[in-house]
Every structure is written in structure tokens, then in C-alpha cells.
Fold:
Amino acid sequence: MPFTLNVNGKSSTVDVPADMPLLWVLRDELGLVGTKFGCGAGLCGACTVHLDGAPTRACITPVSSVGGKSITTIEGLSPDGSHPLQQAWQEEDVPQCGYCQAGQIMSAAALLASNPQPTAEDINTAMDGNLCRCGTYLRIRRAIQRAASIATSSTNSSPQTAQANPPAAR
Ligand code: FES
Ligand code: FES
Structure:
């Protein structure tokens, strides 16, 4: 059955069973293998993508339920790996085996989009469903705080801010 999906800003049509999980559509039909299979039961967060900005477990989301929603995967988070979370992840050297990390970053990205300055408690709550068998939790939390700082400082130094506060005429 054909479904037209909007993935990372691009429209693609796939011909798959209606109950196929979005995870398999992304990986096997569209070749977007950054999103990982962990538990297949909505319990680990490895398959997290965004549906209209909301963090969603792709392993338990049938393709037929996605409709016209905008899907974002780790490949679409930024065009060049420059998202503040991707910068912070590198600076904090977060991953160990790396398997869970795309899901971790997608959950964190949804958090920062709705709450740009999260408290430690906010981060714990938002990241609670993302498991890491390598135990990188402390580095993940530090990286999210660092990403929030990077995003804030780049907002404060953006050209729009400069234009909003023009220097006084001489
Ligand atoms: S693979 Fe989807 S939540 Fe574990
Ligand atoms: S880095 Fe290995 S599972 Fe998280």
C-alpha cells in the first residue's frame, strides 16, 4: 500500500504494509540507518525520531499512523552536523559504542526545542526513557547542558540580535 512521507524535508513514497513500523520504513525503504533498533517494544529509545517535533518511538509507530506529519531523523537534525547538540556531543566525547546515541540526541533535541534552558530535573525527566548499555548518562546530561549554552550564546550573538540593538548614531 503506498504511503507518502515527509522525511527530513523531503517527500518520499513507499509501498509497504500499513502495519510496518516506521523504523523499518526509514531503515529498509529509505536507507536512513542512523535510527537504530534496540528493543522493538518502545522501551529503550534507540529508535527515537521526531513527528512534528515530538519525540516518537519509531519501532512501535505503524507507518499508516504517520499521515502528513513531518518526520525528522538524526540525518535531518542539521544539514552539516552543526546542531548545538552535535557540537556538544563531540566536545563532551559522549558516545562509547554509539548504538543508543542517535536516539539520545533526538530526545534531547526535542527537549531543547521546547525548553531551551532545562534544569537538571527537566533533563532527567525528558531523557528517562532513553537507555544506554554503556552507561554514558553523565556525559549525556553534561552535553545537553553544554548544548543549551551553545544555543543561547549563538542566539545572543546572532545578526538579528545585533540589528535589534543597533549602535547609537554618532
Ligand atoms: S527500539 Fe524502539 S524503543 Fe527500543
Ligand atoms: S553508547 Fe553504547 S549503548 Fe549507549
Observations:
- DSSP finds six helices and five strands in the chain.
- The beta strands are 2-7, 10-15, 48-51, 54-57, 70-72.
- The domain at 2-77 is CATH 3.10.20.30 (Ubiquitin-like (UB roll)).
- Confidence is low (pLDDT under 50) at residues 160-170.
